Amino acid sequence: VLLMGKSGSGKTSMRSIIFANYIARDTSRLGATIDVEHSHVRFLGNLVLNLWDCGGQESFMQQYFTSQRNNIFQNVEVLIYVFDVESREIDRDVHHYQSCLEALLCNSPNAKIFCLIHKMDLVPEEQRESIFQGRETDLKLLSKPGEVTCFRTSIWDETLYRAWSSIVTMLIPNVAALENSLSYFANVIEADEVLLFEKATFLVISHCQGERYSDTHRFEKVSNIIKQFKLSCSKLGAKFQSMEVRNSAFAAFIDTFTKNTYVMVVMSDPNLPSEAALVNIRNARKYFEQLENPNNQTHQYH
């Protein structure tokens, strides 16, 4: 997985929040990335993301496209290109992005491409959608139809989790089987909604959603809230295991599920006994553990 973009665009900050348990305000302590920083991130237990965080200073960018071109762009599964929405050098940013596309075409033609229009919190709220749509249209014109997926992101809200959940879900080998089984599980227990979270990052990796909830950002908000709570627990030496939330409209249960996941089950009956939901979660565990690790193989992606 290649993480690229100009220096200061926020690449290392977002990587640290998603994979290294930083909170947003702590990322100001991070220094500039020098050359390429390699990290192996274990995800879902048996999926290893070989993440290359590429420093964005001009001198490094030139090397990536000349002397290091074959090394950097060989065997790439995913390119995540980060654009700073407030950049004053948008033409140069786009030029570097085009150079990446050309290098991928030669070395990794099947790589999936994601563009993150980042630091959207710096744009007035009423302008965000129009600015994002304008940037998205421009970037899609540079690529073949359907080749690039764009997200608007900020480290200060749930949009970062939305983008990275989409990217990582695409790398999970058996994601279709996971989603089918989750739907079946939701139907059997008559749940309104079931979400599956990866244990370390709390990214949503699969979901079966009902029609009654209108907030399209609710998955990422839950990811963000629970991860912050989990980090608060660990600072106190406590381990987060489960949580139950009830109001007059629903009952929600978040519990450890398989070795590498948490599950959230939302029921529309607020009077449902806790034990009834927890027994169903326990009974489904074994099946999902087998599904998660069918051959006990390790998949590596760069």
Automatic annotation (TrEMBL):
It holds the Pfam family Gtr1_RagA. One of its GO terms (molecular function) is GTP binding. Keywords: Cytoplasm, GTP-binding, Hydrolase, Isopeptide bond, Lysosome, Membrane, Nucleotide-binding, Ubl conjugation. The keyword RNA-binding does not apply. InterPro entries: Gtr1_RagA, P-loop_NTPase, RagA/B. GO terms for cellular component: endomembrane system; Gtr1-Gtr2 GTPase complex; lysosome; nucleus. GO terms for biological process: cellular response to starvation; negative regulation of autophagy; positive regulation of TORC1 signaling. It catalyses: GTP + H2O = GDP + phosphate + H(+). It is found in: Cytoplasm; Endomembrane system; Lysosome. The keyword Membrane applies. Belongs to the GTR/RAG GTP-binding protein family. This is Ras-related GTP-binding protein A. It comes from Megaselia scalaris.
